[in-house]
Amino acid sequence: MEWIILLFLGLIASVFGSIMGLGGGIIIVPALMILNDYSPILSGITPQIAVGTSLLIMIFTGLSSTLAYLKQKTVDYKSAFLFFAGSGPGALFGVWLNKDMQTDSFLVLFGIFIIIVSFILMVRKHVRPLKRKPSGIQRSFVNDEGIKVEYGYQAVVAIPIAFFVGMCSGLFGIGGGSLMVPAMIILFRFPPHLAVATSMMMIFLSAILSSISHITLGNVDWMYALALIPGAWIGGQIGAAINRKMTSVSLVNLLRIFLIIIGIRLIYQGL
């Protein structure tokens, strides 16, 4: 029964993660920590194992989603590689921070982080790009209506933001898109769908680097990973397809409520 739960967990986490550019780890990690208290088969999961296993899964979620978004031609791969110049080192720093973290401290900090992310998701649909014209690196994108949208950023601003996002990824086992996507929309004037797709490519690259670090530290449970990967791969494709057609926010609203409940549950568990 536990393996069926893990299969669906990978699927659901990947669908939501791909839709919003989150990566899915923000669902997988707390789910593994909570299942640790209720299942004898899934017992013994430490924060390090939950994070390391989640980041390994995000390689498959990120690759699946990125391939789907590349077919849709909504990935700014040049920007993704530039952001990775910040998120990659940040991910390694996050792995180092996670190395000696105790379970109770991890649960409380991650619970607080999840609640913050849920509020970011609440206001994300209301955010609008800054009025000023983008400076530094300039980009343009033609949307489905045939309208040319201009956006841009300065590397000295984008790379430190990506470093912080990568640090959160390595520390908590999440993709970091919950932070990166709003920054891309507000500060850099990315079109929302382009921001999500580009974020997923950055998450894919960062997950490779941070998961290798966790593997060398012995923080990956391969049995859990094998149960999660099939759902993660399929979910990445489904999420990318939904993102392209999604016109309502009902699915996102459900995730926000779910994250708040999970965040409170983790804080209670940690205390």
Automatic annotation (TrEMBL):
Keyword Cell membrane included in the entry's annotation: yes
Entry protein name: Probable membrane transporter protein
Main location: membrane
Localization of this protein: Cell membrane; Membrane
Membrane topology: Multi-pass membrane protein
Transmembrane regions listed in the UniProt entry: 7-29, 49-69, 81-99, 105-123, 155-188, 194-215, 222-242, 248-268
Family: Belongs to the 4-toluene sulfonate uptake permease (TSUP) (TC 2.A.102) family.
Superkingdom as given in the UniProt entry: Bacteria
InterPro entries according to UniProt: TM_pro_TauE-like, TSUP/Inactive_protease-like
Pfam families recorded: TauE
Keywords for this protein: Cell membrane, Membrane, Transmembrane, Transmembrane helix
Natural source organism: Evansella tamaricis
